[in-house]
Every structure is written in C-alpha cells, then in structure tokens.
Amino acid sequence: MELVVDMGNSRLKAAVYSDSELSDFKSIPYNNEPAIECLKKQLLAFPDLTKLILVSVLGQGFESSVRGYCEQQGINLIWAASSENAQGVQNNYAKPLSLGSDRFVALVGAKKLFPNQYCIVVDCGTAVTVDALTSDGVFCGGVIIPGLQLWGDSLTSRAKQLDAHELDRPSVLAKDTAQAIGSGSLYGLVGAVEGLCQRIESQLRTTYGGDISVVRLLCGGDAHVIAKHSRLTFELEPHLVLLGLTEFSGT
Ligand SMILES: Nc1ncnc2c1ncn2[C@@H]1O[C@H](COP(=O)(O)OP(=O)(O)OP(=O)(O)O)[C@@H](O)[C@H]1O
Ligand SMILES: CC(C)(CO)[C@@H](O)C(=O)NCCC(=O)O
Ligand SMILES: [K+]
C-alpha cells in the first residue's frame, strides 16, 4: 500500500492511498518529539508499506534523516518538492525551488480538482498562505501570514497582562481577556484572508479579464473554522495537500 504524508511545522498529516482513494486520515502533533521520530512511529504501523510519498517544510537535515531511514527499511520514497514546472503547475516564484513544497503540492491538488479554473488556494496551518493559480496552471504568486494559533501566541508572549486565548467563544464584544484575544485572532484572520482573496481576485481580473471566475479553496488544520466564520464562499478541501501528493505517485 501507499502512504501520503505532509510534514508541517507543527503536525504530521497522513493518509493511505489505494485504488485512487485516500482513507485513514491522521493529524498528529509533534509536541516535544523530533518530527522524524513521529514519522517513524507512523510508518511502523504499516508493515506492508510499499511506497511513501512525502512533502516536508522541515529542511535539509530532516530530509537526510528520512532518506536514510527509507533506504535502510527498503521503503520506496517519493520526495515531493517545488520545481519550475511539474504536475501541471508552472511555478513563477522568483526562485522556484524556494517556494514551500507544501504550497506547490497544494497547487497541484487544486489543479487536479479544478483543471481549467482560476484558483486561490488558502492553506490554514501554522502559517497561512494565500496563493493564486491561473486556469492554465500558472502559479502567479501569493502571500504568507501567521496562522490562527500564532495570532494569539504573539500577544501572550509579548504583553504582560495577556496570558491566555480561547478560540471557542468568539464574540466581537468579548467580555474577558482570553475571549477578547481569541475573538480578535479568529475574526482578524478571517478578515485578513477575505481581504487578501479580494485583492488577489481584483489583480487577476485586471490581468486576465474582468469576466473570469475564481474558485477559492480552503485547506489545512484551521480550514473549517475559517470557512465557518467567513462571509466568502470557499471550497472546503481540508486534505488538499495529501490529494496533491497523490499526483506524484507515478513519478
Ligand atoms: N488536532 C488538533 N489539535 C489542535 N489544533 C489543531 C488540530 N488539528 C489542527 N489544528 C489547528 O490547525 C493549525 C495547524 O494546521 P495544520 O495541522 O494544517 O498544519 P501544521 O502542521 O501545524 O502546520 P503547517 O502549516 O506547517 O503544515 C493550528 O493553528 C491549530 O489551530
Ligand atoms: C510558508 C510555510 C511555512 C507554510 O507551511 C512553508 O510553505 C514554508 O516554509 N515556505 C518556504 C518559504 C516560501 O514559501 O516562500
Ligand atoms: K501546511
């Protein structure tokens, strides 16, 4: 069987890929463990693993560890990474290889779901990325902002009187500190995502024509909560990166 794995900054996300379907979704925080140990534990749970398709934002040292481990265990590893042009996506970043591989793979996933559409891909993880893709599969650029957890963390780590934030009681008329920070984080991020989508859309219309339609896709750990509170319409695809990884299966 094949496994697709997305090694993010805080969490491992994985799914089994067989018969063109994804199943057995997992999202496991690293907590205080090295990411490689977390990955090894997951792999041990699949003794009949034949192929591992993996994307990582964890750098060169992590990549070497994974390559070494897979070689030692006889696991066929496919390392999905940003490139100038692959899987139907043309990467127009100034330095194409410096684009986060998770962003590239998410764009590949969007291209698979909406092959002939302009797309905006919003990935809501530790960081939030908002990326634009033309109907021809050209990645035209995007932005990076802090993710939901970081909005609150940045305040609680820098302001003495701010010590906690709660995201589960959102109100713009919050009546205690934790609720005020949590609500500010949530509605602030929702507003930021909406504003960025609208700016990108108007730029796409200026460049490619006023009559184009643009699909907005939302993925990542906080996709549901952002979709729930946004007034814009999104295609909710929480596993877009894992879906994008399946396109690397034959490579
Ligand atoms: N099981 C969970 N427990 C707590 N928070 C979660 C959980 N799953 C997702 N989240 C939320 O998801 C966000 C992290 O997103 P996600 O899991 O997509 O990526 P990540 O591994 O943290 O980061 P990256 O963007 O680098 O992939 C956090 O802000 C958190 O609020
Ligand atoms: C932006 C993140 C952290 C999102 O996971 C990741 O894609 C990354 O580390 N990117 C490298 C820098 C870039 O994409 O420009
Ligand atoms: K991610």
Can you walk through the features of this model?
With 251 residues, the chain is α/β, with parallel strands linked by helices. It has 2 domains: 2-79, Nucleotidyltransferase, domain 5; 115-147 and 181-245, Nucleotidyltransferase, domain 5 (2-Layer Sandwich). It has 7 helices and 12 strands. The strands form 2 sheets. A 7-stranded mixed sheet has the order 6-7-10-9-8-11-12. Strands 3-2-1-4-5 form a 5-stranded mixed sheet, sandwiched between helices. 34% of the residues are buried.
Summarize this structure briefly.
By secondary structure, the protein is an alpha/beta fold.
Do you know the CATH topology of the largest domain?
Answer: Nucleotidyltransferase, domain 5
- Beta percentage is 25-35%
Distance between the termini: 16 Å
Q: What percent of the residues sit in helical stretches (DSSP H or I)?
A: 25-40%
Radius of gyration: 19 Å
Strand order of the largest sheet: 6-7-10-9-8-11-12
CATH class of the largest domain: Alpha Beta
CATH superfamily of the largest domain: ATPase, nucleotide binding domain
Largest sheet: 7 strands, mixed
Query: What ions, cofactors and ligands are bound?
Result: adenosine-5'-triphosphate, pantothenoic acid, potassium ion
Structural class: alpha/beta
The dominant shape is globular
Number of strands: 12
Number of helices: 7
